[in-house]
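Hey, can you fold this?
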Amino acid sequence: MRIYFCSDIHASRKCWKKFLNSWKFYEADTIIVGGDITGKFVVPIVETRPGDYTATFMGVQRKVNSPKALEALKVMIADSGQYDFITTPDEYRTYQGDQAKIDTLFRRLVVERAQEWMAEADMKLRGTGVRCFVSGANDDFFEIDDVIASSEVIEDPNGKVIELEGGFELLGMGYGNPTPWACPRDIPEDALAGRIDAAAKGVHDLSRAIFSLHVPPLGSGLDIAPKLDDYLRPRVGSDGLEMIPVGSTATRDAIIKYKPIIGLHGHIHESKGIKQLEGVTIANPGSEYGEGILDGLLVDVDPHKGLQRVELVVG
């Protein structure tokens, strides 16, 4: 069985489309997004007068004045993992200073794109026989779980154990340890450990278990991220950015305790790699979603020979 695994695509239209085609390109039986499927920013596109639009995107003011140019701008925004919002100057002013209204708009746009993605997955994967797994992770609102559940073809392994081909089992966990941003699924380490332990009780054969735990193990080398100051800005020292391990003790303890055949992780975009943790292969494909680059892992497992291949790929 060949698995294609990626994570942290954060609403990038281009990355999602690549993911849905990954099974063909890599000849995979199973494809997985290990969480964080939603984006972080809204880009207002203001119609200053009929047919003329302006938006500030990636720090650049962009003006378009044709339907074709407007659509190209919207695609550019979506490919980067952001959400466009077409509005008027009067409507735009009603959002200024009204955080509750902004939050409501953001949640609506997040859910709408996720719904579009599920419909696209159903259309492209229906009848192919490919197993597709997608779950929300620490950055994703809980409403996303219901959207994923609406899909005909996508399965959500979050907090579950799902049987795969050849007697292998997939355990998923999208919750993570606390971050400075207080994300929706950030929970204390002991609570995360409890959730992993509860799910692990459903595993029949740990030697064939594949653990998709969103946050990498603490100190594993897959969890190195910039150290932040009190204003959540990366700290810069004499040698450049200060980097520190920010992974999870609960994930680390679970890998050591249960010794799955492999640990698949995400969360830390800067720390792609394949490592060993007390004899267990663990891997993080990293993420470059903002550039529309899909970082992934190929994992080959055999019912008789076990783990045969783990390889970083970029598409």
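Oh, and this one too while you're at it.
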Amino acid sequence: MNRESELTVSLNKKNLDWLNEKYKVLSPAERIAEIYQDFDNILFTSSFGTTAVYLIHLMKSQGIQQPVHFIDTSFHFDETILYKNKLKGQFDLDVIDVAPEAKENEFSKMAELFRYDPDRCCLINKVNPLNSIKGNFEIWISGLMGWQNQFRRHLNIFEEKDGIIKFYPIIDVQEEEALAYIRNHNLPEHPLKPLGYESVGCKHCTIKGEKRNGRWAQQVKTECGLHQ
């Protein structure tokens, strides 16, 4: 069976094990190059958080000209928007903002859902906006890494949810390796990172903290719902 036939059979059977076995022996850069050989209809999202530049630079190093979808919840730190614009200019990125429905977004602000019902706030401002577009794609590239929290530690390179295959090309990269890459390539740092924010999301739900411990602090919640 040739390579193309193997891929077709694998996808028809939703055989993620086949894809995970194939890609686990590849480096992150090789995985990124390979995914564009295996698939055509690809979604790439970035939060423009503290480690986002690592995956963005890997993509650019492989000559990938891929639009970057950014979920603009309207709750981001000003520093995140400035950082997004800086990376957009430096790497000539085609950034597509994905916004929540205006009335729902306004309701989430007025009701302060981030304080009383953070799951619903994330649903309105993150999950639903992405759901409105992701049906147009086969593959979704995201920069999750296993060291970031317990949930992510158990993810594979490929996962499937709601009819889309999620591709995590740097899921098994260690924190030290990612940070060394950023330093060695002299990549721009998120302005909040040196202030003690190791993970940055919406401003109302983010405080200083190691890894993702500053996200939804004092709550059971650890993920926004995009990847669960």
